[in-house]
Protein 1
Amino acid sequence: MTSVVRTEPGRSGTPILRAKPSTKRILIVDDSALMRSMLRAMLHADHGRDWLITEAASGEEFLRTLAVSEPFDMILLDVQMPGMGGFAACTALREVDKRVPVVFVTAERDLESFRAGRRVGGDTYLVKPVTQAALRSAISTLMSLERKPVVGPELATVEGSELVSAQKRDAAWESPIAASS
């Protein structure tokens, strides 16, 4: 299948690969053009043109993109960016969309950053440099999960007949998926 590169209306230079309507939509948010390019190449190597990829270079551009785009199926989000960082961007996202999977992609390796990512609504955490295997595993796992409805101020999730608080859920989430260094 042939893909066409186009620019999102009102935004200069952000490439979007268009494909068949059933294609999954992914948003890569990183201030490094090289990192965005590497992630895009990894996605294409594993999934061909099965992903419609949109890019944003900052937290602010991420929020503008969300406002004018159709919903995404997955978001790859850097933590450390000038201006609005990934944690603040994810917090803003979770105010309007609690279901889209968010994968933090960062050089931050400390446990507190990992926990902070989980508190703001991240689903998993990949440590740079990201390997293709780690990215593949994170995407495969998150895309296969049924997204549960999220309710209430503490973002409790309904799992079966049990209401599980965010604190209980976070306590069970112990270690990040780390790329080999």
Protein 2
Amino acid sequence: MTQPATQRIELSIGGMTCASCAMRIEKKLNRMDGVTASVNYATEKATVRYPGTITPGDLVATVERTGYTAALPAPPEAGNETPRDELDTLRTRLWVSAVLTVPVVVLAMVPAWQFDFWQWASLVTVRAPDARSTSTPVTPGTAPTSSVTAATQCAQVIPVTV
């Protein structure tokens, strides 16, 4: 006897407030004939494998009868290239960050290469790839936009004595 071909779908689940809710949905889906479900509370998604005799609408109806909301995944948009563009941007940022991290680590770890005020050079190197930030000058009575901005706008170095 041959088993019917199984299909896979990822449902968006709403209304879960705890891990017990996820388990309840998972149990209800797994009680259906031929269905294997795994519900993730953190991502609010259910990954379901089901036979051809069951429709995605049946799965959604079962989740809704359990007391939660479920939605089928949105169809992919044609011509949408943003995930690839975003991946390229992230890969470029990774390489730039890695290249600029090497001098900072070397200066921090090799005392023979440390020169006067090497910390400031490291700070400038760390600050360089963050071109997207909109750092504005700090005026009296306002806070800087980030800790790196605050450090770069510091007027003096306070010596530490032991």
